[in-house]
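input
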Amino acid sequence: QVQLVESGGGSVQAGGSLRLSCASSTYIYSSYCMGWFRQAPGKEREGVAVIYIRSGSTDYADSVKGRFTISRDNAKNTLYLQMNSLKPEDTAMYYCAANPWPQRCAVGASFAYWGQGTQVTVSS
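output
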């Protein structure tokens, strides 16, 4: 059982930055695919960014390319999402997710484990 805990959310002005963290209860093995998802009120959950741990290969939603960066620190069992140039449309609950046995690692892929989320609010 993988337990994930997000932190780092908050309220910022448009154009600002936040760094989200996701602490895993287990070592982040090289086989893992890990990612960040978000859900705004009244909208479907969408994939934001994913990373395949073994290779470091990443995939991003078009809406965040060039602004968000996903990374990991395996020694700390932690996943990060650096969010720059934030826009009001980035406002959502952000969730960390992990798949220890990925068939593929992309924003549209399935994930087995989820955190409880951290709220990001961007004001205009």
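quick obs: DSSP finds no helices and eleven strands in the chain.
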